[in-house]
């Protein structure tokens, strides 16, 4: 439950939430959660916020930062005192890869411009998710990442890091600690600024060389964490996908992927414009890869 650099790995049973709550309430911490709902992904916002109200940082000051290109699609929520919804209108990008990757730039810019004035920590997550058990201050630390549910048990050689040496996201086969998920990371505003700034700059360098890392923002995040190791690591309890089943060791599923009907939610035109799309999307949906079933002997 600890990494070789003494970062705790957060599993159910590894902490006492009462002690942690006493510490974090004493500090009066404020938490921002960033989430992107671009194009049709606005459909996920309602469940996301409703379940977060039940399970995410209950009793703390929380700002929901919803980045969207469809401001009118985001309904109003009545939130208790100390919790608020902040809608940030942002540009949209044509390619879905860019939609997910540009999150780094937008988080960076807003961290620099405003988040540091409003919150102490940022939690940066996917929107196609629901909270189904408590996620509290046990996750907070200077900079944290989450073990990808498809690879927490995998050998280093099987991690889907970027393997082309020309890419800034390149990780050699004999390096890398864990395979971190792109859908849940965070830390202090300053540390998230450094992380997102690194990832965005690395992406831009690659873009200038007509390169895009295999798993987009996730690949750059993994590169960052290789040389700037997280101070806390969240177990896959904090990013699960029921497509992997419910293994016995998984005592809690706190933050779980909402199954998406890819064609309806994602941009259908992409399929027509790019014949390789379906194949690529199947590859992209590696949350649902059969790898884990092999690992579990299922
Ligand atoms: C394919 O057509 C697409 S669209 C792949 C991602 C798309 C997308 C993603 C989008 O149209 N709008 C959007 O807001 N996003 C954001 O990027 C959203 O916050 C989502 O959770 C995040 C990552 O994309 P994803 O959840 O689809 O990625 P996976 O399947 O790896 O969880
Ligand atoms: Mn997702």
Describe this protein with a few key phrases.
single chain, 298 residues, alpha/beta, Spore Coat Polysaccharide Biosynthesis Protein SpsA, Chain A, 8-stranded mixed beta sheet, two-stranded antiparallel sheet, 10 strands, 33% helix, disordered C terminus, binds ligand 4GW, binds manganese (II) ion
Task: List the domain count as a whole number.
Answer: 1
Q: What count of helical segments does DSSP give?
A: 10
CATH topology: Spore Coat Polysaccharide Biosynthesis Protein SpsA, Chain A
- Described by its quaternary structure, the protein is single chain
List how many beta strands DSSP finds.
Answer: 10
Taken as a percent bin, the fraction of beta residues is: 15-25%
The coarse silhouette is: globular
| CATH homologous superfamily label | Spore Coat Polysaccharide Biosynthesis Protein SpsA, Chain A
The kinds of small molecule bound in this structure are: ligand 4GW, manganese (II) ion
Task: Tell me what the structure shows.
This protein is of the alpha/beta class and 298 residues long. The chain has a single domain, classed as Spore Coat Polysaccharide Biosynthesis Protein SpsA, Chain A (Alpha-Beta Complex). It is 33% helix and 16% strand. The chain has ten helices and ten strands. The chain has helices at 17-26, 45-55, 96-101, 103-118, 189-208, 217-227, 262-265, 268-273, 277-284, 291-296, and strands at residues 9-10, 30-37, 61-68, 83-89, 121-125, 129-131, 143-146, 184-188, 232-234, 255-257. The strands form two sheets. An eight-stranded mixed sheet has the order 1-9-7-8-5-2-3-4, covered by helices on one side. A two-stranded antiparallel sheet has the order 6-10. Helix 2 (45-55) links the parallel strand 2 and strand 3. Helix 4 (103-118) runs antiparallel to helix 5 (189-208) and helix 5 (189-208) crosses helix 6. It is globular and about 50 Å long.
């Amino acid at each position: 439950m600890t990494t070789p650099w003494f970062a705790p790995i957060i599993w159910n049973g590894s902490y006492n939430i009462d002690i942690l709550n006493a510490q974090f309430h004493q500090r009066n911490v404020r938490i921002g959660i960033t989430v992107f709902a671009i194009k049709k992904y606005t459909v996920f916002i309602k469940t996301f916020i409703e379940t977060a109200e039940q399970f995410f940082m209950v009793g703390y000051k929380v700002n929901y930062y919803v980045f969207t290109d469809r401001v009118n699609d985001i309904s109003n929520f009545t939130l208790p005192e100390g919790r608020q919804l902040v809608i940030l209108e942002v540009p949209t990008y044509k390619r879905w890869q860019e939609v997910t990757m540009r999150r780094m730039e937008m988080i960076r810019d807003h961290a620099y411009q405003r988040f540091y004035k409003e919150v102490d920590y940022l939690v940066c997550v996917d929107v196609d998710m629901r909270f189904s058990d408590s996620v509290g201050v046990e996750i907070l630390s200077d900079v944290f990442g989450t073990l990808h549910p498809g690879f927490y048990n995998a050998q280093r050689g099987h991690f889907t890091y970027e393997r082309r040496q020309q890419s800034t996201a390149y990780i050699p086969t004999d390096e890398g600690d864990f395979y971190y998920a792109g859908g849940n990371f965070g830390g202090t505003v300053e540390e998230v600024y450094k992380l997102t700034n690194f990832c965005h700059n690395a992406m831009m360098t690659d873009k200038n060389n007509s390169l895009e890392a295999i798993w987009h923002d996730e690949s750059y995040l993994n590169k960052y964490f290789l040389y700037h190791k997280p101070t806390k690591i969240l177990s896959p309890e904090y990013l699960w996908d029921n497509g992997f089943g419910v293994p016995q060791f998984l005592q809690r599923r706190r933050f779980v992927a909402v199954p998406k009907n890819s064609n309806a939610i994602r941009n259908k035109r992409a399929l027509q414009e790019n014949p390789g799309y379906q194949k690529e999307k199947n590859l992209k949906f590696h949350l649902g890869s059969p790898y884990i079933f092999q690992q579990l002997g299922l």
